[in-house]
Amino acid sequence: MEISRKAILEPRKLWWEENGIFNPAVTEIKGRVYLLYRAVGRDHLSRFGLAMSDNGEDFIRLEEPVFEGEEDNPYERLGVEDPRAVQIGRDIFITYTAASVHPTATLPQFPDQTP
Fold first, then answer.
1. Looking at the chain, which terminus has fewer C-beta neighbours within 10 angstroms, N or C?
2. Cβ atoms within 10 A of the Cβ of 102, count?
3. Distance of CA 91 to the CA centre of its chain
4. Does 106 score more than 60 pLDDT?
């Protein structure tokens, strides 16, 4: 068996993913592979992109992010990272890490210092 050295996904020249893509979460639904990935844009914030494949090698990607941290949420101000996906029954649960410049213990005390 020969192993392909070709990257499945590479960053595109899109504002929201041109600085890198990482940490995919993969699940298969009815024979189609869905890959949720972290993308870092020119603003250095992380968002999630989505790619789909019918054969697990050739992926079609959406042109816009499918999820990003809320601008007014201090817990997600620097973006979202490390998506995980698990299917339980008919539901798919997605978890992620939210990034902030402040320790969580200081957020309620100093909300005006959140970027």
1. N
2. 17
3. 19
4. no
As a residue count, the chain comes to 115
Residues contacting 41, CB < 8 A, separation 6+? 14, 15, 16, 17, 18, 19, 47
Reading the block at residue 25, the tokens are 């979460």
- Nearest-angstrom CA–CA distance, 111 and 51: 35
Q: What is the pLDDT of residues 5-14, one digit of tens each?
A: 777 889 999 9
Could you list the beta-strand ranges (E) of the chain: 20-29, 32-40, 46-53, 60-61, 67-68, 79-88, 91-99
In 10 A of CB 106, how many CB atoms? Answer: 13
> How many C-beta atoms surround the C-beta of residue 35 within 10 A?
21
Q: What is the separation, in whole angstroms, between the first and last Cα of the chain?
A: 50
- Give tens-digit pLDDT for 15-39: 999 999 999 999 998 999 999 999 9
